[in-house]
């Protein structure tokens, strides 16, 4: 899909109040939970992802409880798409004051087994897209003297996990990018933080039951949404970060451990080293 398009009409512009939010990767999982949470705090929220029907569902769930949501169906990996997403959000809702980068792609494999196209795809979605989105919103945030950029990183980007491939590298790099954004913009009222989750039960991650881990030991997308909302509630004088790790309490549900086990079990089943990929 090329150009952005509101999938079900433009809502009214948000009145003064909580800042307009743009959530990249809002069609499911962590991004959808964050979008609902920010809408519940009063933000008008632009929802970005490729799956139009899923975006509409999230938007509907927000509107049902009185919130404002603008679904924007587009592929952020396409040239120019991040800029179009921001332009459409600002045209429909007003200046973006909170950017949440949750869109992600994963393809697990050792370096020697990683195909170039998979490497590039992960770097594009997990690192370049957050850079392009941030570059688009930062001038306005600096001018207004306020703004938040929250990146959903990963525990796997904090450690060297064999087999984490382009995913681990892209997450490690986006952690640094977020820190850099914070450092360059802190005197302009803009704060940037990475929230780096461990294993969260979503469509992107391995199913806990497949790896013999009880569901309740794995994080829920809501846990990450709560963390993001907590961050945004901090007073302007307060900076948290540059990175907040949110891990399951149980060590066997820790991100690195789970990923190693997932790769091993994929190989045992003959599924090959790259059994997991976000489409
Ligand atoms: N689940 C975990 O255990 C875990 C742990 C650590 C970090 N994370 C990170 O959390 C973030 C969210 O993942 P999730 O676990 O919530 O899985 P998810 O439900 O699969 O969410 C991924 C989101 O990224 C969007 N996306 C992917 N490619 C896109 C593209 N080209 N253009 C636009 N949107 C795109 C997807 O939307 P469409 O498919 O509609 O495009 C979806 O909304 C990711 O960055 C992931 O790396 C997850």
Explain the overall architecture.
By secondary structure, this protein is of the alpha/beta class. The chain is 41% helix and 14% strand. It has helices at residues 29-40, 52-64, 81-93, 116-144, 165-185, 221-232, 255-268, and strands at residues 20-24, 45-49, 69-73, 96-101, 147-152, 190-197, 243-246. Strands 3-2-1-4-5-6-7 form a seven-stranded parallel beta sheet, sandwiched between helices. The protein is globular, with a radius of gyration of 18 Å. The model is unreliable at 1-15 and 269-279 (pLDDT under 50). The protein binds NADP nicotinamide-adenine-dinucleotide phosphate. NADP nicotinamide-adenine-dinucleotide phosphate is lined by residues 25-31, 49-51, 54, 75-77, 102-105, 125, 152, 154, 197, 199-200, 202-205, 221, 278. NADP nicotinamide-adenine-dinucleotide phosphate binds next to helix 1.
Q: DSSP helix count? A: 7
Total number of domains: 1
Largest sheet: 7 strands, parallel
Order of helices and strands: EHEHEHEHEHEHEH
Number of strands: 7
Bound molecules: NADP nicotinamide-adenine-dinucleotide phosphate
- Rg, rounded, reads 18 Å
CATH superfamily (homologous) name: NAD(P)-binding Rossmann-like Domain
| Fold-level CATH name | Rossmann fold
CATH architecture descriptor text: 3-Layer(aba) Sandwich
As laid out across the biggest beta sheet, the strand order is 3-2-1-4-5-6-7
Please give the alpha-carbon distance between the first and last residues.
15 Å
Shape category: globular
């Amino acid at each position: 899909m090329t150009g952005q398009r509101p999938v079900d009409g433009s809502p009214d512009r948000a009145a003064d109040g909580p800042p307009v939010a743009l959530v990249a990767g809002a069609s499911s999982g962590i991004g959808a939970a964050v979008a609902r949470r920010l809408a519940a705090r009063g933000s008008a929220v632009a929802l970005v992802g490729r799956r139009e029907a899923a975006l509409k569902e999230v938007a509907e769930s927000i509107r049902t409880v009185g919130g404002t949501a603008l679904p924007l169906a587009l592929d952020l990996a396409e040239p120019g798409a991040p800029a179009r997403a921001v332009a459409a959000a600002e045209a429909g809702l007003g200046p973006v004051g909170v950017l949440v980068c949750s869109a992600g792609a994963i393809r697990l494999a050792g370096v020697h087994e990683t195909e170039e196209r998979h490497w590039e795809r992960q770097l594009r979605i997990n690192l370049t897209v957050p850079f392009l989105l941030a570059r688009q919103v930062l001038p306005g945030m600096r001018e207004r003297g306020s703004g938040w950029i929250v990146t959903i990183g990963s525990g796997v980007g904090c450690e060297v996990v064999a087999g984490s491939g382009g995913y681990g590298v892209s997450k490690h790099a986006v952690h640094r990018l977020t820190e850099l954004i914070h450092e360059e913009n802190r005197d302009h009222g803009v704060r940037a933080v990475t929230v780096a989750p461990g294993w969260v039960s979503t469509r992107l991650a391995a199913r806990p039951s497949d790896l013999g881990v009880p569901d309740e030991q794995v994080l829920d997308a809501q846990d990450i949404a709560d963390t993001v909302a907590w961050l945004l509630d901090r007073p302007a004088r307060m900076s948290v970060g540059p990175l907040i790790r949110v891990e399951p309490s149980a060590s066997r549900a820790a991100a690195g451990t789970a990923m190693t086990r997932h790769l091993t079990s994929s190989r045992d089943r003959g599924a090959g080293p790259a059994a997991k990929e976000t489409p």
